[in-house]
């Protein structure tokens, strides 16, 4: 495949059909992409990316806002979503769960309110938490805990909360210490007053901005059916809110880790079938999972395709491996998915801390021996785009993917 050197400012062809780019909408990528480029070792890729320094940059569907732009803004808040939109993400994610009155809201987990909001600082609501705050007993090696779920409170109560950066202090002996747990590679500069959103409010925001939407139906932390609310009701209600808002199915990529949810949409909402995304977590189901050995994957790629699945989305590390020269190359998993006719989306870039510390951790585990500096973000992204052939990449700071996609006409 031929990849064009330089950025799109040298391309006067405004037909973006082949690159998923909207040249009518400018993007603000800020300083981070060039910071990452500066960290790269000398290479043809670095030269190409450097040439795009002055832009211009545009919105692209290749760039997907993971929970918004959650590296610097509280995830699943209006502020995080707006930052993702401004930085050129053509698709933005709302993880969908439900409250005690079965209203749909944007949260990564049904029970993450203690670590992503100020709920523990509001006594009337903290008292409703499934597991109230318990201080650490450092002497005996006991960590601080608290579990607060959207299903513990009503929608009206949910809307009184403020989003904060995801994190907690396991050594906390007070609520204030517990809440003060942002990882040191993120920031609290924009985290003081995050606006929580319902699923319907996220739809309205995304529709007004003209971006596409990727709602993720989260696994319920309560037993289903919940007060008569079945899993199928839950899966259908999520899509019904797009219909109610007048959003065409072509603008929506519904996703779930639960393959039965995806199959439900394929069977019962065929207008969404081509863009329904199976978030693949089969690595969690078996300790023997190996991206290099198809015998360890069940169901097979061919079976998924035969069942009507069109898009599969595994974590970064599943899609790549290292060759004998420690170069990043596609995994057998990636090759098999492509051979079966499945499109691929990858998650999640820039979810780790500094790559120079710990080789990127969980998300980079299959290529850890090749990871030692921040510029490796672009090295991996380049392989995902050119060699794996992904159609989009989730990122906690989507400006990075926007920069790459514009530079490479992706």
> Overall mean pLDDT score?
94
Which parts are unreliable, with pLDDT below 50 for 5 consecutive residues or more?
A: 1-6, 8-19
Oligomer: single chain
Task: Kindly provide the radius of gyration, computed on alpha-carbon positions and rounded to a whole number of angstroms.
Answer: 21 Å
Largest beta-sheet details: 10 strands, mixed
Distance from first to last alpha carbon:
12 Å
Tell me the β content: 15-25%
With helices defined by DSSP (H or I, 4 residues minimum), what is the helix count? Answer: 15
Helix content: 25-40%
Report the strand count.
Answer: 16
Q: How is the topology of this model organized?
A:
Elements: E1 21-26, H1 32-39, H2 44-50, E2 58-65, H3 78-86, E3 89-98, E4 104-106, H4 113-116, H5 123-126, E5 131-134, E6 145-147, H6 155-158, E7 162-163, H7 175-179, E8 194-195, H8 199-209, E9 212-217, H9 231-244, E10 255-256, H10 259-268, E11 277-279, H11 301-306, E12 311-313, H12 316-319, E13 320-322, E14 328-330, H13 332-339, E15 343-349, H14 376-388, E16 392-395, H15 399-407
Helix pairs in contact: 3-8
